[in-house]
Design a protein that fits this description.
It holds the Pfam family TsaD. With about 220 residues, this protein is α/β, with parallel strands linked by helices. Helix content is about 35%, strand content about 25%.
């Protein structure tokens, strides 16, 4: 068993999950204000659970798509921690994690939301079909009207979706297993070739941020 540490900060909450010597520790912390500090929260988590970071052999990062700011912050922290501990890190698509929460469904629609846009991945048997799409709210509703009603919807910020499509789709919003599944996917990826991801790798962006769009316009 690989002792591993996982991070998710693609939306409004920080998830930290640690599997060490067959014991699991987890943290779920909603972003409350602009003073939200991942290093401090993580340090408190480590001290509270008496975690020996020298026993960690792999760090796993949920790399998006999602919040531009959150993804940059978490990946920078993960890279710094991996370099400091001299251990590998791997990135896992946030949508892949969501899809694996509902393995028993043959058709899964995964949705994440940021900056007024929805990112959508259509999965069959946990495999992404085609590419990740980016929609406005109106275009998303039009797309979902054409989807098989036996599909399962999962992701974040699904309030509007629930109101409009609650009777058409099964909608899952309980993400308590996210950290565990992220950790399992990361370990499986690493064990395939026992290589770290490139230290220069970036988050999974589907569209440019508003700042980038304004800069190039």
């Amino acid at each position: 068993m690989v002792n591993a540490l996982s991070f998710e900060y693609s939306y409004k909450a920080l998830i930290v999950y640690c599997r060490i010597n067959n014991k699991d520790f987890s943290l779920f912390e909603l972003k409350s204000n602009f003073n939200f500090s991942i290093p401090k929260i993580f340090n408190d988590f480590v001290i509270t659970n008496n975690i020996d970071l020298n026993q960690i052999k792999l760090i796993i990062n949920s790399c998006g798509p999602g919040s531009f700011t959150g993804l940059r912050i978490s990946l920078s922290f993960v890279k710094g921690l991996a370099l400091g501990l001299s251990i590998p890190f791997v990135n896992i698509s946030t949508l892949d994690v969501f899809a694996n929460v509902v393995k028993n469904s043959s058709s899964v629609i995964v949705l994440t939301f940021t900056a007024g846009k929805y990112f959508l991945g259509h999965y069959k048997n946990c495999e992404l079909i085609g590419k990740i799409l980016c929609f406005s709210k109106e275009d998303l509703f039009e797309y979902l009207n054409q989807i098989d009603p036996n599909s399962v919807l999962i992701g974040n910020n699904l309030e509007n979706i629930s109101e409009k499509f609650n009777y058409k789709f099964e909608i899952i919003e309980n993400l308590s297993s996210f950290g565990r599944i992220l950790t399992e996917l990361g370990i499986a990826k690493y064990l395939k070739n026992r290589k770290s991801d490139d230290i220069l790798s970036g988050p999974l962006y589907i569209r440019q941020s508003d700042a980038e769009i304004n800069f190039h316009s």
